[in-house]
């Protein structure tokens, strides 16, 4: 396994200090009830133009300093009970690291776990307390390629916010005159309740077995094939890319579970749904609700049936939220989270998380030296499917995380391999 050596570690200060009026950033109820971990993304660039190779770190540091002036909570400190961020301009942690192998050894490894070497130690799944809300690592490989990793506190950012920040940082790196326009006003939509025992609202998690990840690609043509299967055999109309792909990987998960136990086990899939809109698109923070989709029979697992069920659950949630006051959304989201946790704790269902980071531009992040060949996350501690845009075309990449033993069975599923291919990138 490749090892890393820290070349330098520093705090990147804001180019412009945060005004005293913005010193206390109130966290929203949605922020508070979120899991207090870091969200980890890595962007791999194997071919760096010669005119950039000697100044990459300086470009990243200068642009990060400026963009932090707009994203000032990322340079502060979260207080102990997760109710506000002290925007004290401490800065973001920035590491330069040397990796003692070529990039190809990391991104062509069958398991995604190998990419853990490009994330800061003790991150990404550590607590957000006592660590900068933003930790950046620039990794230098023996081959001359680099990886840019950003770990942001999930207390401050959801996936939408993180993608907005990364895009704005890249835009600033290419043009220092660029001016981001984030709004840290989520607490006006989702205020913290004044008379709630906040410590009791947080769902609990338990240590789990070791998980591993693999990335698969669904080509545009295979997604079209899946959509045709779903629409021809049901009354489902206009299924999305993620709906049909998540139905397939869910079905493969059920098959794997049945091979292991010899019997069908009910499932729970927890989908994350962005609340922007109705919340404004430039609102930073956590603005996500969850959709709970269960199956209790093998028939419900079939692709057309599962997509129909997913669409119905999604529509019911949208209808529920449509007429709901915004300040009631966190309580409803919390209730859904508690329902999910109750199912998880009973152990009656196989549980999968599912989220989509598509249409965010993350697959084309260009700091000035071109687009990445791979965008990925570190391996989490739970079963989940994370969908991302592929680097070219209209297909999807999905990062699948399961226990090590389950992955051995899952990755040999013939139906999975009929529609999806393991992702291996050429860095030559």
UniProtKB/TrEMBL annotation:
Domain of life: Eukaryota
Gene Ontology molecular function: any one: acyltransferase activity
Matches recorded under Pfam families: Transferase
InterPro entries, alphabetized: CAT-like_dom_sf
UniProt keyword annotations, A-Z: Acyltransferase, Transferase
Signal peptide extent: none
Gene3D superfamilies assigned to the protein according to its UniProt record, in alphabetical order: Chloramphenicol acetyltransferase-like domain (3.30.559.10)
Family: Belongs to the plant acyltransferase family.
Name of the protein described by the UniProt record: Acylsugar acyltransferase 3
Lineage of origin: Eukaryota, Viridiplantae, Streptophyta, Embryophyta, Tracheophyta
